[in-house]
Amino acid sequence: MDAQIRRELRFLKGYAFVVTALLGTLSLAAFTRANRTEKFTEIDVERINIVEPDGKLRMVISNRPRSIGPIYKGKPFGYAGGGRPGIIFFNDEGTENGGLTFAGKKNADGSYEASTGMSFDQFNQDQILYFQYNERNGQRRADFTIADRAPVDIKQMVDERDSIMKIADTAARALAMRKWAEPRNGQPLFAQRVYIGRDRTRSAVINLSDPSGKPRLRLLVDSLGAASLQFLDESGKVTARYPQ
User: Fold this and answer.
1) What is the mean pLDDT of the chain?
2) Which residues contact 76 (CB under 8 A, 6 or more apart)?
3) 17 lies in which domain range?
4) What's the mean pLDDT in 70-93?
5) Which residue in 52, 117, 152, 162 could disulfide with 56, CB within 3.0 to 4.6 Å?
6) Is residue 3 one of the residues assigned to a domain?
7) Which residues have a Cβ under 8 Å from the Cβ of 187 and sit 6 or more positions away?
């Protein structure tokens, strides 16, 4: 009986030694791998998430089907993903704050459409600095915009809008939506302040607008090459023009 116990003890000691050695090897391999920079000549991937040590997103690079929807402090809101191929940026809190998106295709009927956009968002709001290109069957515009947005939390705004959209009475819903879109503390939800671009009429335009987003000064070179400088009042009427 003592001989059997001694054999079992030797077996257990040997088993413990092997398991300890194996775990040590795996731990060392994991540590070494975690601190090693991988090098690839070429890689095919549908999505890459770049995250902080705590797991918060900092950037997502993806194709269309795997593209991400709006994220606020790490949580989805607004609408589902799947429609924004490109790169989306996130701030320190894990909230989306800009990105680069692009698309373009020719349809079966021969028509085509294309777009590219790069934007930077106001804190906890939407884009206020952006470059855009849009084209549909030869109707093309390309522009740069600087905008103002009311300092209202975008998640709060979206939740309010979604709640309004659930109102069954269409008249009451429309009234609530008009009220929702009104300025907050005298500031419009959105006001384009600077616009520089080539519009769909093939004119080169610079618009400088007031805090309400109404153009007040316009520099224009039209599709025929005629240049003009225009001053506008609050209603959009041209009050002075050079040349006359």
Assistant:
1) 90
2) 69, 70
3) 1-38
4) 94
5) 52
6) yes
7) 148, 150, 151, 211
